[in-house]
């Protein structure tokens, strides 16, 4: 049996209908180098989605490898209750400094979903400690995604992940998404954002005495298809949260670490020249270790931290995970922050993005496509429903393999979130192969099993 078959026998793969997996067997990846993954047959694939949006600087990066080797020889891990270590302290200090000290404390988790759980619990417990125990409700955005654990799913609105578990979930309020694709003929993206803000305001007005926090993905709702919105939304939402005394939680798990063009997406909320504005809690994960090790964290404002200080143990935030603040993971994260400083990653990416944007330009006019969108190092477009056909994502993914692409559309949304290692040549190649894959998929006849059933006529 080859490795893919053994995998299908032994592993219950994530985010996969296993019955369907035989049609789309996993690639048996043997090694990675830069943006390339190599399978056990020696074929290469460009990691167009940065391995679920985590891999910032390519695979097996020499500098991150060196930092990890060094950490491995001194301290791989120690628990963070009753002990501390330099990588965790330095990481917390540096991230706080990147917010101008506004978010003064860092609480460590492991995966993204654990950071969301932490932020929700912190917010709830803050109000309880602040003698306002009625503030227990959470508000989230339609089409939002915050992870798969029960708390995170409760504030998620992606049917395919959520619906089966709905009876188990906390009831959260859902408000209109600021998704710019909803713009009417005479509406701008900012107008759509304004409509979404009005929806939120109506809810806050009615329920603010009971609402603990509002959670959102700033600028891009990732898992529902790289859905983008105008930064005016973030400004207005910050003001509403202030007015109604509701915590603002920014889930930057996907959009943080430079993905949208600034280190934190929320940095784009303030108008140019105005003082920066910040959420109350920020969740970070994925790219923070550049795809090496699981690490997540929640940055909190000091007033939230202060509300937990008490002689009584139970008024503290007693949440914990065994691997909280793992030293290897924190060291990888420090190597990532070093890269941002030394290589001026944000400035370099801004230049690199121009190349790929130019190379993808034909898609903007392609009649088979709608809503081409781009922000920072994210590109996405929707294939029109009339063109996409059934099982579009699977067909596109499989066709992409023949073009040396590892790419997984979401529904009929094709997106690119490449590692930050593009150059002009790679951008031209990537755009060419994406367009060629699209042509292949849309020109191929549908497989028999996927053809719509047409009843025979007499
Ligand atoms: C915005 C957002 N929040 C939370 C998560 C959950 O992160 P994890 O898969 O590491 O639990 C994700 C994962 O895609 C995400 O995109």
UniProtKB/TrEMBL annotation:
<protein>
    <recommendedName>
        <fullName>Adenosylmethionine-8-amino-7-oxononanoate aminotransferase</fullName>
        <ecNumber>2.6.1.62</ecNumber>
    </recommendedName>
</protein>
<dbReference type="InterPro" id="IPR005814">
    <property type="entry name" value="Aminotrans_3"/>
</dbReference>
<feature type="binding site">
    <location>
        <begin position="321"/>
        <end position="322"/>
    </location>
    <ligand>
        <name>pyridoxal 5'-phosphate</name>
    </ligand>
</feature>
<keyword id="KW-0963">Cytoplasm</keyword>
<comment type="similarity">
    <text>Belongs to the class-III pyridoxal-phosphate-dependent aminotransferase family. BioA subfamily.</text>
</comment>
<comment type="pathway">
    <text>Cofactor biosynthesis; biotin biosynthesis; 7,8-diaminononanoate from 8-amino-7-oxononanoate (SAM route): step 1/1.</text>
</comment>
<feature type="binding site">
    <location>
        <position position="320"/>
    </location>
    <ligand>
        <name>substrate</name>
    </ligand>
</feature>
<feature type="binding site">
    <location>
        <position position="145"/>
    </location>
    <ligand>
        <name>substrate</name>
    </ligand>
</feature>
<comment type="subunit">
    <text>Homodimer.</text>
</comment>
<keyword id="KW-0663">Pyridoxal phosphate</keyword>
<feature type="binding site">
    <location>
        <position position="52"/>
    </location>
    <ligand>
        <name>substrate</name>
    </ligand>
</feature>
<keyword id="KW-0093">Biotin biosynthesis</keyword>
<feature type="binding site">
    <location>
        <position position="286"/>
    </location>
    <ligand>
        <name>substrate</name>
    </ligand>
</feature>
<dbReference type="GO" id="GO:0004015">
    <property type="term" value="F:adenosylmethionine-8-amino-7-oxononanoate transaminase activity"/>
</dbReference>
<feature type="site" description="Participates in the substrate recognition with KAPA and in a stacking interaction with the adenine ring of SAM">
    <location>
        <position position="15"/>
    </location>
</feature>
<feature type="binding site">
    <location>
        <position position="251"/>
    </location>
    <ligand>
        <name>pyridoxal 5'-phosphate</name>
    </ligand>
</feature>
<dbReference type="InterPro" id="IPR005815">
    <property type="entry name" value="BioA"/>
</dbReference>
<dbReference type="InterPro" id="IPR015421">
    <property type="entry name" value="PyrdxlP-dep_Trfase_major"/>
</dbReference>
<feature type="binding site">
    <location>
        <begin position="112"/>
        <end position="113"/>
    </location>
    <ligand>
        <name>pyridoxal 5'-phosphate</name>
    </ligand>
</feature>
<feature type="modified residue" description="N6-(pyridoxal phosphate)lysine">
    <location>
        <position position="286"/>
    </location>
</feature>
<comment type="function">
    <text>Catalyzes the transfer of the alpha-amino group from S-adenosyl-L-methionine (SAM) to 7-keto-8-aminopelargonic acid (KAPA) to form 7,8-diaminopelargonic acid (DAPA). It is the only aminotransferase known to utilize SAM as an amino donor.</text>
</comment>
<dbReference type="InterPro" id="IPR015424">
    <property type="entry name" value="PyrdxlP-dep_Trfase"/>
</dbReference>
<keyword id="KW-0949">S-adenosyl-L-methionine</keyword>
<dbReference type="InterPro" id="IPR015422">
    <property type="entry name" value="PyrdxlP-dep_Trfase_small"/>
</dbReference>
<keyword id="KW-0032">Aminotransferase</keyword>
<dbReference type="Pfam" id="PF00202">
    <property type="entry name" value="Aminotran_3"/>
</dbReference>
<feature type="binding site">
    <location>
        <position position="408"/>
    </location>
    <ligand>
        <name>substrate</name>
    </ligand>
</feature>
<keyword id="KW-0808">Transferase</keyword>
